[in-house]
Amino acid sequence: MSRPWDWSPLDLASDPVPGDPTEIRSSATSARATGTSIETQSRRLRRLAKAEGWDSESGRTFTTSAEPLADAIDKAKQRYLDLATALDTYADGLEELQRQADAARLDADEAKEARRTADKFVVPGETDPFEIDRQEAARTRAVDLADTDLADAKAVITRLVGTGGDTDGEYGALNDQAIAAIRLAGDDELRDTWWDGVKQVVHDARGVLGAIKDVLNALGPVLAVVGLAVALLGGPIGWIIIAGIAAAAASLAITSAQAMAGDATHEDVIADLIGLGMAIVGLQSLNAMKFAVAGATRSIASSAASRAGAARAASVPARKAESARKAAEKSAESAVFRSADDAARHPGVITADSLLTGGWAELWSVLRLGRGGPAASEMRARGITWALAGGAANASDLVGATREVMTLLPDIRDGSYWTTKHSHVQVGSL
User: Which end of the chain, N or C, is surrounded by fewer C-beta atoms within 10 Å?
Assistant: First the structure.
């Protein structure tokens, strides 16, 4: 049933309680259908996850992700059902207020018509004073009654909308209740927080962050080449290892942020954590092997000096023995240190230690210079352990980074790098 458009009987320019209950109920029906559809889809996902025939990598990935995904979308169901209830309640309340407003408009229209009719109660040309008094009294009663009816009709409108429009009265209260109910429908564990905003920013930047990680990973082979070149030229390489640690730490930070946003897995975080650990082990092993080489060199030089001094002292007269012994010791000691320096600068040693042996090639070259004391034996034992750890770390980092770069090259060459890798959305992400 259509509602009146002319509200002039109540001295109003427009409908005081606008709205379409039919459209609102239609929206409620759609929301309820969406909630029901979500429930149906979550049940289907769970059935598919438990079905047989998923014996493949993609199938296992699906079965692992289907259950948490079903739980996630199922949480939205109640939002739609509560929204439908709020809309239906609002439509019922609005329909009742509109019924009262329409009735008040009809009463006002009838009151004004009664007022116009009352003006005709006194017949023009009447001469009988008693009849005139009777007609005037009847007209006054009719006018008063019409004015009272009109005032009552306007009072209904005032009760419905107050004096401030649709923000006051029962209509305003109904709107406030509907707004509160709709907000309450969305006030659940799915409600976004400031942390959700942070995760959304990370998710939106997944392409850029992924590209940054690829650059950081590519630094592995680059730093290895630079480090080898610097070492061959005799420069310090500690800063290169520190740069590798910084790159690994930055990659871990990005992966951790992406994991919290759902764009990386826990396995990705663990892999980057291992990479950072390997880089730190590499630096510690480098320092440890420097200590081992220096200790072994001093021990061998000391032993060589003692043997050379004793031999030289025995071959000269007693009065010259002391000076000869010192000269022989210094010469033997200097020879060992020169040979150790030559071994450290040998291209083969540098290359082997930079890429694989983690300092053992240099230590082994020093140990071959001669027999040392107990300290040399201790450095040899420690050096094996440190070299294995450092060499494994260096090799693992180099191989892993090289493999990662090689997997990216085909996508870079055919121009699909950005679309295939960094626009991909993880199951379970935002």
Answer: N
Neighbour-count burial of 413, counting CB atoms closer than 10 A to its CB (0-12 exposed, 13-18 middle, 19+ buried): exposed
Nearest to 272 by CA among 249, 240, 296, 305: 249
Measure the CA–CA gap between 78 and 70, rounded to whole angstroms: 14
Which tens digits make up the pLDDT trace of 228-237?
A: 566 666 666 6
- Do 112 and 146 touch, CB atoms closer than 8 A? yes
Closest C-alpha to 383, from 297, 311, 318: 297
Q: What is the pLDDT of residues 314-341, one digit of tens each?
A: 888 877 888 888 888 888 888 888 888 8
Structure tokens at 410: 């085909």
One-letter amino acid of 97: L
| Residue listed under structure tokens 């739609």 | 80
- Tell me the one-letter amino acid at 73: I
Q: Using the structure block, give the residue that is written with the tokens 């191989």.
A: 399
Contact 143, 118 (CB under 8 A): yes
Place of tokens 């990370």: 202
Report the Cα 349 to chain-centroid distance in Å. Answer: 46
Distance CA 357, CA 360 (A): 5
Query: What is the C-alpha to C-alpha distance for residues 8 and 11, in angstroms, rounded to an integer?
Result: 5
pTM above 0.85, yes or no: no
